[in-house]
Amino acid sequence: xxxxxxxxxxxxxxxxxxxxxxxRRSSQSLLNPRSVVGQMFLLQVxxxxxxxxxxxxxxxxxxxxxxxxxxxxxxxxxxxxIAHSPGVVEALRSPDPTARLQPQADAIVxxxxxxxxxxxxxxxxxxxxxxxxxxxxxxxxAQDLAALRSGRTITGRNVSEGRTAMRTFMPIKxxxxxxxxxxxxxxxxxxxxxxxxxxLPLLLGITAFAMAASTVGAVAVGRxxxxxxxxLGPAEITRMYLHNEAVLHAxxxxxxxxxxxxxxxxxxxxxxxxxxxxxxAQGQQVDRLPLAQPLTDLLSSGREASDEVHLSGGRxxxxxxxxxxxxxxxxxxxxxxxxxxELSELSSRADAARKxxxxxxxxxxxxxxxxxxxxxxxxxxxATVPLFADYVTVxxxxxxxxxDEPTGREQExxxxxxxxxxxxxxxxxxxxxxxxxxxxxxxxxxxxREGTLxxxxxxxxxxxxxxxxxxxxxxxxxxxRVRDRGIHSLLTVPLRARGVVLGVAAFWQADGRxxxxxxxxxxxxxxxxxxxxxxxxxxxxxxxxxxxxxxxxSLLPGASPELSALxxxxxxLPTASGGVGGDWFDVIALPGARAAxxxxxxxxxxxxxxxxxxxxxxxxxxxxxxxxxxxxxxxxLDELVARMDAxxxxxxxxxxxxxxxxxYDPSSGRATFARAGHPMPLLVRPDGSVDTPDVPVSPPLxxxxxxxxxxxxxxxxxxxxxxxxxxxxxxxxxxxIDFGLDLLRDTLAGHGERDPxxxxxxxxxxxxxxxxTDDVALLVARTRRLPAERVARxxxxxxPAEVARVRAACGRQLEAWGLDALGYTTELIVSxxxxxxxxxxxxxxxxxxxxxxKLICEVSDGSGTSPHLLRAAGTDEGGRGLFLVARLAExxxxxxxxxxxxxxxxxxxxxxxxxxxxxxxxxxLDQWGDEEL
Length: 933
Fold this sequence. Notes:
Elements: H1 13-31, H2 36-83, H3 88-93, H4 97-111, E1 116-121, H5 142-150, E2 154-160, E3 163-173, E4 179-188, H6 192-228, H7 234-250, E5 254-258, E6 264-267, H8 269-275, H9 293-301, E7 305-312, E8 315-323, E9 333-339, H10 344-366, H11 373-384, E10 391-397, H12 398-401, E11 412-420, E12 433-435, H13 446-449, E13 452-454, H14 476-484, E14 487-497, E15 500-510, H15 518-555, E16 566-573, E17 581-590, E18 594-605, H16 607-624, H17 630-647, E19 657-665, E20 670-676, E21 682-684, E22 690-691, E23 697-698, E24 712-715, E25 721-725, H18 737-748, H19 756-767, E26 776-783, E27 791-796, H20 802-817, H21 823-840, E28 845-851, E29 854-861, H22 881-888, E30 891-897, E31 900-908, H23 918-930
Parallel strand pairs: 20-23
Antiparallel strand pairs: 1-4, 2-3, 3-4, 5-6, 5-9, 7-8, 8-9, 10-11, 10-15, 11-12, 13-14, 14-15, 16-26, 17-18, 18-19, 19-20, 20-24, 21-22, 21-25, 25-26, 27-28, 28-29, 29-31, 30-31
Helix pairs in contact: 1-2, 1-6, 2-6, 10-11, 10-15, 11-15, 15-16, 16-17, 18-19, 20-21, 21-22
């Protein structure tokens, strides 16, 4: 057996005696290498000696380094002072430099604590030297000569006659920077051993002090160990430790000891079992152990606790905790715990709380995963059925479903979700409008402003409460269906976000589950609050997305116009994410029965891309009215995009727009293509072969710079199909663009007779990726040719007399076409335009008539000047011809070609007017002449 030795009373001589005995026993332990104190003392002595040796080595190295640095700095400073001192240049250039410089060098050596000063001229001849025998000799160091020639300063070691010095050589320059000589200054290094010896006593003193401190510390530690072990020997301490271990691990009550820093000092087997701790838990921080948060907080705080209930690993523990400050312990706490899982009521409450936490956690990660309102409401139902309730109904205000904000005066809701654990609940179906009574929606009483709990619907009259949406008054039939289904408990909570009530959620409980409690109402309100925020976010997104889609649809063309030149069909598909993009297409009617096809793409998505697309499409339509060549139109569009970037403060062209513009002439069957960074077009010949025309590619719009845009002209057979598209059609994940292009060619091949609508459907079915990553625009046009018998052309010499001949020929051609009603007006138009071309234009002059949906008259010449509509005064003899042309024709205009210009007019074919009366013509002229200029 072991025993505790009682300490003596600390008064009188006994205290001194005990102190002396303690020091003596501590000294004996210090000299015993088997004791802990002796081993610690020997370790300290070894560490002190090692540190002293390291310090001595460092001292030598430090002294040597400091000596070199000081000598180098001093030699450099003296050399710099001599090289820049007044008169040294004049002394070097004097007849006898030694006479002037040697006394100064001796004074510098004496006063500046340097060992030698050598001044040389630019040839390296010494003029000052401590040894007179070396005067007028060249310096022997090649590095000094090199530094003298190059004008550099060098500093380094110099060993001479067994002595080491730091030597600096610096060139001497005159006022113009020319090297006239040099100066070498040397400082010998002091004895390293002497400097180290002067510091050695201090090092030895520090070492002796450290040895003494170590001895005193070891004795003090030994004395403290003796006091803490109460004078027990090693065998007694071991026996006591074994007994304590046996008692701790045999007890059927968990014991945990935690220090003030939250570290687990001791845990017995029972506590390890109850808490589910790993074997290596002892010594770890409590907050890093796999414990429930309340239990972790209790053990870390060290506060006093009595029979507190905590959950751990499915067990209910009764925990007591006391601080150790009153038991001669430094700090910390001891906790004891018992397994109280047999308390069924407490366990059921803990299980209910755990389920509520699980529901809340599932709702936090499951609600609001998308920005779709109906999907968000379904996620609320999925998160609560059947974990929280047996049935759920959610009703929203009508404006919420369309993206608008409720006004606060709605009296009807729309059923959005009706979910149940065992099938459809006996409530109104999804989509039905439900009246909310008895007050308007947002001004209803506490039934809507706050959640309500009906723990037992079968109590009293057994009627469904009036504030449930869909039941303006108590409904006995509904109550019967509710009772038949076994529904007995109800929670009704508002869906409120930013102070606005968006709808109502109702949770129903049926037989087989306990009725709702107040804690359940709080959980339902929390679920409704989270769902309301997600619904409100989805509502805002729905509103903004609808606005963006409306904007984009308004910027894209509607149905393709009816043209004689071609028959077109188009498709536009947004990305799978539903966002708006910047792809666009257009079919534009041009003068001369021609047509323009346009496909473009603005990189990016969102309102900015859609707005930019609208601006570019409008610009293309406006520029096409000028009847420009495709490459000229793209050049102007490129300048427009560059200006757009500059207006938005973008230093570089980052709009990222591409465009392909094509013009088709049905009279000649010729198509002209030009593209700016856009994918190449495809041509399907009437025989079904697919060609890829070699259309030169230019940089995207806004990045063209000085590079010209080029075009390609192709002759197309009647019935050829032009396929234009954006890159979203042929790009797909995991494949390069060639894969999509090959798939598109294979889809088009062999179907030259297919109409554009069928081609669009076939292409989208075969080529479109399952989930496109970009918008897709597709434009398909099948060409037609204007019959040769509907085209008449006459070349005119530059003779005014030829106008009458051509006018008569035009009249005969109109009679052949059966357009006698247009004969007089057409002859008048041809007469005026041809006369102007002969009089003001340059050869060659030609007149052409096209019989299409309208009668088109074209007069071309080689001049680049354009006619203008003028106001002729009553006294003017001319100036009214173009005015008459504008009044008689439906449209007129000018387009420029590579060889001049063409003035064209269009006349409707459904006119039945004959030749205009003379008074009509005169009245027009009189009306024009009477207007003020």
